[in-house]
Amino acid sequence: MINARYVRPDNPYWSPEAGRTITGARVFFYALADFAGIGFGAFGVDSSGSGPEFDMQFGDLGNDYRMVNSALPVITELQGTSKLKTAVEEEGITGP
Protein backbone atom coordinates (compact mmCIF):
# COMPACT_ATOMS: atom_id res chain seq x y z
CA MET A 1 0.00 0.00 0.00
CA ILE A 2 1.32 3.42 -0.96
CA ASN A 3 0.52 4.89 2.48
CA ALA A 4 3.26 2.79 4.05
CA ARG A 5 5.90 4.71 2.06
CA TYR A 6 5.12 7.88 3.98
CA VAL A 7 4.90 6.60 7.55
CA ARG A 8 7.84 7.64 9.72
CA PRO A 9 8.22 7.56 13.50
CA ASP A 10 9.27 11.23 13.59
CA ASN A 11 6.39 12.55 11.47
CA PRO A 12 2.61 11.99 11.84
CA TYR A 13 0.94 10.56 8.74
CA TRP A 14 -1.15 12.99 6.70
CA SER A 15 -2.50 12.36 3.19
CA PRO A 16 -3.08 15.69 1.44
CA GLU A 17 -4.03 14.36 -2.01
CA ALA A 18 -5.65 10.93 -2.27
CA GLY A 19 -7.64 9.71 -5.25
CA ARG A 20 -11.27 10.73 -5.57
CA THR A 21 -12.62 7.35 -6.66
CA ILE A 22 -13.82 4.44 -4.53
CA THR A 23 -10.15 3.44 -4.15
CA GLY A 24 -9.38 6.79 -2.52
CA ALA A 25 -12.38 6.30 -0.26
CA ARG A 26 -11.00 2.92 0.87
CA VAL A 27 -7.56 4.39 1.50
CA PHE A 28 -9.21 6.83 3.93
CA PHE A 29 -9.96 3.95 6.31
CA TYR A 30 -6.45 2.56 6.05
CA ALA A 31 -5.03 6.01 6.79
CA LEU A 32 -7.16 6.36 9.94
CA ALA A 33 -6.65 2.91 11.42
CA ASP A 34 -3.47 1.34 10.08
CA PHE A 35 -1.39 4.51 9.83
CA ALA A 36 -2.88 6.66 12.64
CA GLY A 37 -3.46 9.44 10.10
CA ILE A 38 -4.02 12.97 11.38
CA GLY A 39 -5.41 14.27 8.10
CA PHE A 40 -6.79 13.09 4.79
CA GLY A 41 -7.82 14.98 1.66
CA ALA A 42 -8.88 14.11 -1.86
CA PHE A 43 -6.94 15.44 -4.82
CA GLY A 44 -8.64 18.41 -6.45
CA VAL A 45 -11.37 18.89 -3.87
CA ASP A 46 -10.44 22.55 -3.59
CA SER A 47 -10.73 23.30 -7.33
CA SER A 48 -13.31 20.96 -8.83
CA GLY A 49 -16.34 23.24 -8.66
CA SER A 50 -19.77 22.17 -7.51
CA GLY A 51 -22.95 20.52 -8.73
CA PRO A 52 -23.81 16.97 -9.81
CA GLU A 53 -20.42 16.27 -11.43
CA PHE A 54 -18.61 17.34 -8.26
CA ASP A 55 -20.94 15.19 -6.15
CA MET A 56 -20.24 12.14 -8.32
CA GLN A 57 -16.46 12.58 -8.13
CA PHE A 58 -16.37 12.82 -4.37
CA GLY A 59 -19.54 10.98 -3.36
CA ASP A 60 -17.84 7.86 -1.98
CA LEU A 61 -15.31 9.81 0.04
CA GLY A 62 -17.98 12.24 1.27
CA ASN A 63 -20.08 9.30 2.46
CA ASP A 64 -17.06 7.96 4.36
CA TYR A 65 -16.44 11.36 5.98
CA ARG A 66 -20.07 11.62 7.11
CA MET A 67 -20.06 8.09 8.51
CA VAL A 68 -16.81 8.53 10.45
CA ASN A 69 -17.51 12.04 11.75
CA SER A 70 -19.39 11.05 14.90
CA ALA A 71 -16.87 8.30 15.70
CA LEU A 72 -13.76 10.52 15.43
CA PRO A 73 -13.30 11.00 19.19
CA VAL A 74 -13.19 7.22 19.70
CA ILE A 75 -11.04 6.67 16.61
CA THR A 76 -8.43 9.20 17.70
CA GLU A 77 -8.34 7.65 21.16
CA LEU A 78 -7.67 4.20 19.66
CA GLN A 79 -5.20 5.26 16.96
CA GLY A 80 -1.78 3.76 17.47
CA THR A 81 -3.13 0.89 19.56
CA SER A 82 -3.83 -2.69 18.58
CA LYS A 83 -7.56 -2.06 19.17
CA LEU A 84 -8.20 -0.18 15.90
CA LYS A 85 -8.09 -2.18 12.65
CA THR A 86 -9.18 -1.56 9.08
CA ALA A 87 -11.80 -3.81 7.51
CA VAL A 88 -12.47 -2.87 3.90
CA GLU A 89 -14.02 -4.96 1.14
CA GLU A 90 -11.85 -4.96 -1.95
CA GLU A 91 -12.33 -6.67 -5.29
CA GLY A 92 -9.96 -9.53 -5.94
CA ILE A 93 -8.98 -10.08 -2.31
CA THR A 94 -10.24 -13.46 -1.17
CA GLY A 95 -8.34 -14.03 2.07
CA PRO A 96 -6.69 -12.28 5.01
Describe the protein in words:
With 96 residues, this protein is mainly alpha-helical. The protein has a domain at 12-78. 39% of the residues lie in helices and 9% in strands. The protein has helices at 22-33, 52-69, 72-78; strands at residues 14-18, 39-42. It has a two-stranded parallel sheet with strand order 1-2. It is globular, with a radius of gyration of 14 Å. The relative contact order is 0.18. The model has no long low-confidence stretch (mean pLDDT 78).
Uncertain segments:
none
The percent of residues in helical segments reads 25-40%
Beta-strand share of residues: 5-15%
Count every beta strand, where a strand is a DSSP E run of 2 or more residues: 2
SSE series: EHEHH
Largest sheet: 2 strands, parallel
